[in-house]
Amino acid sequence: MAIKITDKVTWVGKIDWELRNFHGEEYTTHRGSSYNSYLIHDDKTVLIDTVWEPFAEEFVENLKKEIDLNEIDYIVANHGEVDHSGALPLLMKEIPNVPIYCTVNGAKILKAHYHQDWNFETVKTGDELEIGKDNKLIFIEAKMLHWPDSMFTYMTGESILFSNDAFGQHYASDKLYNDLVDQAELYQEAIKYYANILTPFSPLVTNKIKEVLDFNLPVNMIATSHGVIWRNNPTQIIEKYLKWADAYQENQITIVYETMWHATRKMAEAIADGIKSVDNDVSVKLYNSATSDKNDVITELFKSKAMLIGCSTVNRSIMHATSGLLGMIKGIGFKNKKAAAFGSYGWGGESVKIITEGLKESKLEVVDDGIRVLWQPDEDSVERCKEYGRKFVKKL
Ligand code: FEO
């Protein structure tokens, strides 16, 4: 269903209520998502982005109800990833000669995905496209936010920034705007999106935002490609991004553990008790990495000033969820966070050393060699873990 967002711009995207995994199984989407596409009617008619391929047929059919496809003068592909370009093959069968505006990398990526010789018009930052008396489109490359081809498109007159993935949220809603949805849900999805997808590119986020702000362009709306459109105080999400990109942390310590017979869990709880006994203000959160959602755990680590990662030793190594988590931590590249390891063992006891090495490889500031407990913690070991927690706080 198309929804008019201004006199000249109509949302023609797709809300995907049932999506629960994105990027294969890499990102969980508890609240679904949307693929936002926009149709601009002015002297020229422009389509900005499309939707994911499973919804291509529905998308093109709905578009035909809105407009004769032959009236489309230009297509803007802000980003070549399939969730936004997936309907292009079907659409381009109907209007094969319509120019597709994208970056040089965008053309390469779209060609490599769909192997079609479409009419690409490549653009770079500052290039403009006249679309009517009061409106033109200005293109702004946003390389590595989050792909090499990513681009923003700014519509003058209406003052809308079509930001594609940036400022988005995987959040299905019948309400199209930020001011109409539950703010806790919105910000939970926005920070999860940033933590898991954009953290590795934080320095670029800061630079790009400063570059866009330097243009001094008024922004009435930030029309993202996922989730709601920021229309009420739209710059609030820009301000959040600047904070999130700047080695973000809250007064939180997150303890993530994996356990076979609960010994490492008991260690985690004792360490948490120790921390709380000397610092009642800090928020301490515990997660079992094997049973918790990996992307929610990453979000909590993103919010933390320090993390403790624990795991039993098994087969001279660590358990598989911990291994996966360490891989994610390394890839994401958190900044300004302290860390240490803990774990129970029966004989070899390698887990703490392996985790410690993993944390160092991830460029976290490892504060000590961690703590181990042989088999199940007795009263003395529980006390040792509490004391470890108390000392850990002092090292932050
Ligand atoms: Fe929403 Fe990078 O695609």
Q: Can you give me a brief rundown of this structure?
A:
This protein has two domains: 242 residues, Metallo-beta-lactamase, Chain A; 141 residues, Flavodoxin domain (Rossmann fold), CATH 3.40.50.
The count of β-strands is 22
The CATH architecture category of the largest domain equals: 4-Layer Sandwich
Global Rg: 24 Å
Mean pLDDT: 97
Describe this protein's structure.
The chain has two domains: 3-244, Metallo-beta-lactamase, Chain A (4-Layer Sandwich); 254-394, Flavodoxin domain (Rossmann fold), CATH 3.40.50.360. The protein has helices spanning 56-66, 82-85, 88-94, 104-114, 183-198, 202-214, 235-244, 263-278, 294-303, 320-332, 351-361, 379-394, and strands spanning 3-4, 9-11, 14-16, 21-22, 27-28, 33-35, 38-41, 45-48, 74-76, 100-102, 120-122, 128-130, 136-141, 151-155, 160-164, 221-224, 252-258, 283-288, 306-311, 338-345, 365-366, 371-374. The protein is built from twelve helices and 22 strands. The strands form five sheets. It has a seven-stranded mixed sheet with strand order 1-2-7-8-9-10-11. Strands 17, 18, 19, 20, 21 and 22 form a six-stranded parallel sheet that branches. Strands 12-13-14-15-16 form a five-stranded mixed sheet, with no helix packed on it. By secondary structure, the protein is α/β, with parallel strands linked by helices. It is elongated and about 80 Å long. Helix content is 35%, strand content 22%. The structure holds MU-OXO-diiron. MU-OXO-diiron binds next to helix 2. The site of MU-OXO-diiron has 9 residues, from helix 2.
